[in-house]
């Protein structure tokens, strides 16, 4: 039963979330929490792992959630569920895009989807940031915790280096190294 549930939920996420993996984080979070599959902290850990491993974020997230929830078969069914809609849709779009790419209706759809995708990515960013920077809730003592300032420092450094076009692999390795070093220093 859990395998079918995983497949159908990730099929729904794959079918109704536009904008790629980052836009899917909010839906994956909602489904994982509603079904009791993951805590908010586990979700953030899975986002970090998914970003640090090869492959698309959403596929990695589905695989991790499926593995935790239903073992190896859960990983396979969740992964199939999330990729199947995209696979089918891209086959259809590829067949017709060349013919209709100049259409006003297609342009209108794209015009409407772009800000919605940015909003969904922003919502996921806020949700994940809240868990990373304020794991015990938003209160004044959070700003005095060493871990908060380590996280802010890593975030700021990564953002600056990303804007300077430092390769993402270097950013991931650097962030992990700083996190390990800081974790030992502040007892995380």
Order of helices and strands: HHHHHHH
Relative helix content: over 70%
Spans of 5+ residues with little confidence (pLDDT < 50)? none
Rounded to an integer in angstroms, the radius of gyration calculated over CA atoms is 19 Å
Shape annotation = globular
Number of helices: 7
Q: Tell me what portion of residues adopts beta-strand conformation.
A: under 5%
Biggest sheet, open or closed, and with what strands and sense?
none
What is the strand tally?
0
Write down the overall mean pLDDT.
83
Straight-line N-to-C gap: 38 Å
Overall structural domain count: 2
Classify the secondary structure makeup into a structural class. mainly alpha
Can you lay out the helices and strands and say which pair or pack?
Blueprint: H1 2-16, H2 21-34, H3 40-52, H4 57-100, H5 104-133, H6 146-163, H7 168-186
Helix pairs in contact: 1-2, 1-4, 2-4, 2-5, 3-4, 6-7
Describe this structure as you would to a colleague.
The structure is a single chain. With 188 residues, the protein is mostly helical. It has seven helices and no strands. The chain has two domains: 132 residues, no CATH class; 52 residues. 81% of the residues lie in helices and 0% in strands. It starts with a helix and ends with a helix.
